Amino acid sequence: MSRFLLVVLPLQGHLYPMLAIGQELARAGHEVVWCGPENVLRPLVGPSATVHPTGARAYRRYDERGMAGVRAMWDGYLIPFTRFTLGPVEAAVLEHKPDVVVTEQYALAGALVAHRHGIPWATLCTGTLELTPPEDLVGFEDYLADKMAQAVAMAGLSGEPIDPRFSPHLVVALMTPGLVGDAVLPDRCVLTGAALGTRPNAPDFPWHLWDPDRRHVLVTVGTLVGHMIGDFYDRAAAVLAPMVDEVQAVFVTSGVAAESFPDNAITAELVPMLDLMPKLDAVVCHAGGAVNEALTFGVPMVVAPVRAEQVALARQVARSGAGIEVSILDVTVAELDAAVRAVLDQPDYRHHARRIGAEFAAAGGAAAAAGHLVELASGT
Q1: What domains sit in the chain, N to C, each tagged with a CATH number?
Q2: Which of 82, 74, 147 is nearest to 109 (CA)?
């Protein structure tokens, strides 16, 4: 059996896929050591798991979009996060002596420390921005090259031929050809589809309010961008209110609200996504983590991206035929109504969502990702 050090980015959408892969490795009898904030990891991995704590670095909320948002993300959070975690990750490697370091793509310290010690390491790409950046992100490649040089220098590795976003040993991308199309991917990149596991912190849901005789639409913008959506929830409520006889809406509030919700709507701060998703007929979301969850269960979407990484994924969803992209700030009630009715009523959208879901199932998800990691550990 092998020992794996899993270095996480402590944001929900990035944590859950790593959690699912860690669960598969542990289920197969391998030793899994977690590296990240203990207060974030412990409720997910349980009291008996080994957690090497990094301490917690607060996520700085930002309002910028496009390339300005990319710069804010790297300069305001990811580069400081790398600086903050280099020491704890170094200590974790020295103490636990892993056979393989598995690092979330934005948790650069895992890659840098593994490279320094000559340990095989794998990148987990929970998103698609670095793999398939939108063409209208002018200056993206040059800016990221500068940030990678900054991170490499920070680790005392100046001049080393390493891009800590992409392992030369193994890159695990949570997508399939139906989404990425003919994009040129890094060497040693495997497409596994969504990695969904058990979520011990899944919230309760008011199932007693669920109307089984109506179709169901989930509206969510995740937990990080609610301050950037304008009155989108009011517009979504205006679309869904006239459908009340045939559609029951579920709004995930997560710090955002509308002036009023449809009469029979269910509202909740958080929802158990993996329990809810198989029961849905459509999802309206910001093209975050809900996309892979919806596609796994063949649920078509209206995607209204906010930040650059969500724009990249939203465009993939639209190109695949599994959903419709709209502007979260500019879409009118009439346009949003047309999009929601299309994904509900036109069978092609559900057909393509199910096609991608079938690709996900065939790709193997978390179990396949764990299998590739075991092969890396064994040198095969």
Answers
A1: 3-193+364-378 (3.40.50.2000), 207-361 (3.40.50.2000)
A2: 82
